[in-house]
């Protein structure tokens, strides 16, 4: 739909930026922090680990000062479960609590709203060794962890995100270092436990913090059929249910999506559901949906007799399931230097699909472009591609708002350069450059990129700055 005039962004729109604890903090074994699964994850050869990253733990005040200079209205970060409760359950680490207290206070000093992800890919290793999300007792562990967070930070944190990208952990856990499953049945049992843990946290949050808001944070993307053939359209429906709605139907409506359930049945992978489980899912009501969007997906029908296919670069990533869907490239899109398709219109479509389906306010908790970058001869970083990427996506978000979608915040990835899930420090996402290489830590100097000043201007004016690029 073409609009002659776009609605302005709401006055109190949360212009934000995102990070996650294990990708940004470093200090992996300092001040009583227990190890997490990410601390023992072996990255692909030639890729750095998460032990230091951009050392935000030791640069926190300086980083927050820069976030304030950029004009951020909010900052989305995650709390490392094993920094707060080193073994995942039991003893609380006061120094961990103290760090997040300082971070939250520092943000509030500059009127930056903290948005907290409670769990972002870094399960305490002790729990993982016991079976992690496969064990039902983890629901109680997560609930107790949630209680510790609400007790300690609930007086200042109003926005809570339960679990980052649960769907990516279930679908691509090998790639992002979270997989511990022994098969499809086990992975969907883990998924069921995560859904229950999330539901318990939402219920507890509403009991303990009546003024706070809480919601899930999956990765959602719209799925195109490769052609207008009915079979391709059906494959797109299949994949949409398995990739998107399975997670949100459970989080919002407290039900298992029927198509996804049929897929699980077909694969003998339905989770064991105990009496009362579905009541817990139903009783939990999110206040909003947070979602991460990087790109769309395109799929074709997949012959039931065909073989299951994995990604040519990553054998752990399934890209085709016989009889269900087959991922294909979409020739209509340009790609990032890391091969991710760029689809801003798909972002608008995704926003609309989510709002149409669930009628809940939305916040975008990740969106961004990974680039190879270095300091230019003038000591700066001219990241015009990133500005173009954001401009195009924010423009489409404004169109979605004009379409009637309720969006209350945008938190791109990432506030500052950090370590990517599996492609190291060379894949930079930040508004702020950090002067280190893949393995050489150099001086860790912070240098605002051109996009930093562009975003600053956007936030000040609450609108996309005028530029000469062709929209
Ligand atoms: C999301 C994760 C983030 C982040 C981002 C970019 O899936 O929530 O943790 O890293 O993707 O992905 P990558 O780091 O693989 O480029």
From TrEMBL:
Top-level division of the source organism's lineage: Bacteria
Molecular function in Gene Ontology: beta-glucosidase activity
GO biological process, one term: carbohydrate catabolic process
InterPro entries registered for this protein in UniProt: GH, GH_1_N_CS, Glyco_hydro_1, Glyco_hydro_1_AS
Record GO cellular component, one term: cytosol
PROSITE patterns the record matches: GLYCOSYL_HYDROL_F1_1, GLYCOSYL_HYDROL_F1_2
Name the UniProt record assigns to this protein: Glycoside hydrolase family 1 protein
């Amino acid at each position: 739909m073409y609009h002659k005039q776009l609605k302005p962004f709401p006055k109190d729109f949360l212009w934000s930026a995102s990070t996650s604890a294990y990708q940004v903090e470093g200090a992996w074994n300092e001040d009583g922090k227990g190890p997490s699964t990410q601390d023992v994850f072996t990255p692909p050869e030639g890729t750095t680990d998460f032990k230091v990253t951009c050392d935000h733990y030791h640069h926190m005040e300086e980083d927050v000062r820069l976030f304030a200079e950029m004009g951020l209205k909010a900052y989305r970060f995650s709390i490392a479960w094993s920094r707060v409760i080193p073994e995942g359950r039991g003893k609380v680490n006061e120094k961990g609590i103290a760090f997040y207290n300082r971070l939250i206070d520092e943000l509030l000093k500059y009127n930056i709203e903290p948005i907290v992800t409670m769990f972002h890919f870094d399960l305490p290793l002790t729990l993982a060794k016991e079976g992690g999300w496969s064990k039902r007792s983890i629901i109680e562990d997560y609930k107790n962890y949630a209680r510790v967070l609400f007790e300690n930070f609930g007086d200042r944190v109003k926005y809570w995100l339960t679990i980052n990208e649960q769907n990516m952990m279930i679908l691509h856990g090998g790639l992002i270092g979270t997989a511990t499953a022994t098969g499809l049945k086990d992975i969907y049992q883990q998924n069921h436990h995560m859904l229950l843990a999330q539901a318990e946290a939402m219920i507890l949050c509403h009991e303990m913090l009546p003024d706070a808001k809480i919601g899930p944070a999956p990765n959602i993307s719209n799925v195109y059929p490769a052609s207008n053939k009915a079979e391709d359209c059906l494959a797109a429906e299949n994949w949409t249910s398995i990739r998107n709605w399975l997670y949100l139907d459970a989080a919002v409506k407290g039900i298992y999506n029927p198509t996804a359930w049929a897929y699980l049945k077909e694969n003998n992978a339905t989770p064991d559901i105990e009496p009362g489980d579905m009541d817990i899912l139903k009783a939990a009501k999110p206040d909003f949906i947070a979602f991460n969007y990087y790109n769309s997906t395109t799929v074709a029908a997949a012959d039931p007799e065909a073989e299951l296919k994995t990604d040519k670069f990553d054998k752990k990533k399934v890209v085709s399931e016989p009889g269900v869907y087959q991922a294909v490239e979409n020739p209509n899109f340009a790609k990032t230097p890391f091969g991710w398709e760029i689809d801003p219109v798909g972002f608008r479509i995704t926003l609309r699909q989510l709002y149409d389906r669930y009628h809940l306010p939305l916040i975008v908790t990740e969106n961004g472009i990974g680039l190879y970058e270095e300091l230019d001869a003038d000591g700066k970083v001219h990241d015009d591609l990133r500005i173009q990427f954001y401009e195009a996506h924010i423009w489409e978000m404004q169109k979605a708002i004009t379409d009637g979608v309720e969006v209350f915040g945008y938190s791109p990835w990432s506030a500052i350069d950090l370590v990517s899930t599996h492609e190291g420090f060379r894949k930079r996402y930040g508004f702020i450059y950090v002067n280190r290489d893949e393995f050489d830590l150099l001086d860790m100097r912070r240098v605002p990129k051109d996009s930093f000043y562009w975003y600053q201007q956007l936030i000040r004016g609450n609108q996309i700055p005028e530029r000469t690029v062709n929209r």
